[in-house]
Amino acid sequence: MNERARNATGVWRAFALLGLLALGTLTGAQTTSQKLQQLQRELTEQRSLSEAQRQRLEELRRNIASLGQQQRETLGRLDALGEDIAVMESQGRQLQLRVQGVEQEIRRLEGLIELSSARIERLKTSVRTLMRTVQRERSSMYLQVLSQAKSLPDLLIRMRYANALGQQNVRLVRTLKQETETLQELRARQLDQQAQLEALQRDLQAKLEAVRERRTEQQALLAELQRSAQGQQALALQTQAQQQVTARGIEGLVSGILQERARLEAERKAREEAERKRREEEARRLREAQERLRLERERLARLARERLAAQQAAERLAAQQAAQRAAQQEAARRAAQQAAERQAAQQAAAQAQRQVEREEQAITARQQQLQQQEAQAATLSVPLPDNVGRLSVPLAGGRVSVPFGREGSWTVLSSEPGAQVVAAADGEVIGETTYANEGWVVLVRHTPTLFTVYSGLQQPSVSTGARVSRGQGLGFAGGSPLLGADSIRFQVVVSQNGAQRYVAPEF
């Protein structure tokens, strides 16, 4: 994973898990009754416990205490399984995000390797041509250039140009060596990233398998409770208690994110600025590479003209020598040799042209990647609107099964099992976490003051920091064993003057 991806994922992930860690202080190895008691105590200390909440929590505690020993043990095991699943799913999600980051880095390295390989092939051809020329001409060309000087100033000028040509040849060889080392480094990094990817994929597969095993045991316990009236009563109490505890954890997560919004926004802008500078620097290097290619094209054209002039002069000289010596056989041999050299030169020129074109294509492809990244960054930097209008129903085919306020500060929506959960309006994903027996929770900010919370999802299909449009998929229902495969919990939060207020959704 590249540095930007690691930083962005690390910061957002750490904060997205804030709610899960806060919930851990409520859960741990506690029983359901103990969780309710601690929740009641914390709400009382914070003076945020309403009379209705107090009565609801007291009644839940009394009812749970009246359950039989076996039922309480089953609920305890169900609690423990839910917490294990929540932790494992959170770890699996982190692994999934790391896999995506490593895959993105591998794709970036593949583009750079293609560009470096094309450049090396062009340089190799230039060096081979240079070595053949040096081997053929040896030092005679240098001496011939100097011997043709007509005066001392002319001699000095010819020496300067001859030395410059030699230095250019040295730079050519040095550039090839440096580019080869760069390519070797890129390939080593690619192999390292590939090894990391394979290890992460193995870890992710193992984590998913462990979650499936816990899910199977969880479903068995739920089925056991559903077989008797007492079990159904215990499960209903468990669901109500879990709702109260989870709702408090989600409220803490929302509150924490809102309080930290300014700091997170500053960090996001700093990351965007650093990434912008990195893209600008790479774009500058690509422009320089294009300029080098332009000069290379001019050099190849000049060499082609010089070769053509030299070949024509050699052919005229050979014709004169053949006529003078009347050596037809020698003339034929020389003509054949010149034709072969001309063909070899043409082939070399064509190969050099193809290599230049390949390098240009690699540069263009990398520039397009940078332009796509720039467009994505520009989309993320656009401020959210002040108003998004009426919210859409966030569950495909959804209907209200539990209205707002009946059980708490949420609305329960139901549809077909595994129905898609979608964004209620355009916005930005500001948090994602998982809770015991609640499934995945996704938070979306639509305006500076309007937020929505989607609970009971399976693995989210979006990640923190992503922009989403109205109706875009966030995941699928079925993540909460207590809500069931066909339902989610939906909350609308209005933040004003540092305070959060949960309101009934208006679809």
Describe this structure as you would to a colleague.
- The chain is an alpha+beta fold and 507 residues long.
- Among the domains are: 69-227, Helix Hairpins, CATH 1.10.287.1490; 399-503, Glucose Permease (Domain IIA) (Distorted Sandwich), CATH 2.70.70.10.
- It is 70% helix and 11% strand.
- It contains 10 helices and 10 strands.
- It has helices spanning 3-16, 18-26, 32-45, 51-65, 69-137, 140-147, 152-226, 229-259, 261-325, 328-381; strands spanning 399-402, 411-414, 420-422, 427-435, 439-445, 450-457, 467-468, 473-476, 487-496, 499-503.
- The strands form 2 sheets. Strands 1, 2, 4, 5, 6, 7, 9 and 10 form an 8-stranded antiparallel beta sheet that branches.
- A hairpin with a 2-residue loop joins strand 9 (487-496) and strand 10 (499-503).
- The two termini are 41 Å apart.
- InterPro entries: Dup_hybrid_motif (IPR011055), M23ase_b-sheet_dom (IPR016047).
- Keywords: Coiled coil.
- Residues 414-491 form the M23ase beta-sheet core domain.
- This is Membrane-bound metallopeptidase.
